[in-house]
Design goal:
about 500 residues, alpha+beta, Creatine Amidinohydrolase, Chain A, domain 1, Creatine Amidinohydrolase, 6-stranded mixed β-sheet, about 35% helix
Amino acid sequence: MAIREWEWLRGVRWSVTSVALVALRALGAGAQEPSFTTTNEELAARRDALAARVDSGVVLAFGARRPVHDYGQFFQLPSFRYLTNSDDADAAFVMVVRGGRGTSQLFLTPQDARRALYDGVRADSATSLARYGIAGRDFGALRGVLDSLAKAGLPFYHIPDVETTDFASLDTLTRGQETIKALIAAHPTLTVKNAMPLVLRLRAKKSATELALIRQAAAISAEGHRAAMLTANPLHEYELRAALEFEFTRRGAERPAYGSIVGSGVNGTQLHYMKASDPVRPGDLVVMDAAAEFRGYAADITRTIPVNGTYTAEQKQIYQLVRDAQDIAERMSKPGMKIRAATDSSVAVRARGLAALGLTQGVDATFDPPWKVDCTAQPAWCRQSMLWMVHGISHGIGLAVHDPLQGSGADGTFAEGDAFTIEPGIYISTRTLSMLPDTPKNRAFVAAVRERVKQYENTGVRIEDDYVITEKGLEWISRVPREIPEIEALMKRRVRVQP
């Protein structure tokens, strides 16, 4: 899924007929299938690691609420799931830490027998320890416990109850925030710290079980993209979205990992286009950014395909440029290598290619951007090439589609246990030129490139794959055709049906 800021991040040509078969072959004769079960021992180790970082204090986290807007399926919040594996709604987690050692409790909302017939039986104080390895208490006791702990003078470490950290800054009305406000009002000297950074650092390194879950999510997602490529003469974007999401469900995914993006023509130049309501027309490209969530773990795959099964000459030029940019980033994304180097190499390949195609005035040519940026402090954002490749090329994946990486930061490196994407893109449209401020520099830029932009009008290309790093090195796990000949060959196998 295209990320908001360009931050970081052809190695293998391989045509695949079935990810499931490939996964079985990879196991080898007599090998055990990967475990998809997170044990209570692993969960306890996660909590111990968090306690060691806290040293002394009270860790407080709220889980997701039972849906109140409709009868939708319940999904647990990522960090709460990471620490507890609880799949019960309306729960809270409290860990009292002294000297780096923690004692944990789950506070569980009771459910009457009639409601259990509708929603299923929740864990309670009698079953919590057996199910989750954590002692349970009635949720009604929570506030009294928190008040008592606040009086003891220990600092509180709050894990915000947000679905994704992308929007954590908007969290003002969640149950967690309201509880913290009430505690501070009752105990003005209480120290409250945000524990989410501590949890994210733990989540960044994936265990063997987590990597198995991410691989499975990627394998399911890859089959969804293959099914979309084999969809005969689609007439609308939503037909391709249906093919993707049907295959996700058929193969055991709980849901799409994020809102599926299926955009044809000009819609393919909008990074997060999610309506999927317009016609698809022969001659257009379709950007399909969609993936599955499997047992809480997300994949993230994008493919760009021609509606009629064959790329035009201009589409091939842009597509291959993006593919080359992904290839160089992939080769730079090995254990111990700088994350920033993968990004820079991908940007450089695309900048040179865009200049060669006449879509910029030169590799280092600048413009006056339509977004707020200090061109002195961030000169890269003011190069003309950035107008056509505005987003970053990578992010971590895991319990969230934008999950942390171990090497976050300017000098970070890839490390064993990382799971991430590489997703360069280029998006060409005269609509984008119209966004530019009317300045002398921009007028010269537009005059120089407008005719070339028209030649590539409404060509949006993004190629996104998933990877993990193990003791053996980099592993590409989203194995679905991505080379031009592979995609065209697969699409020739479509069974054409008269509308």
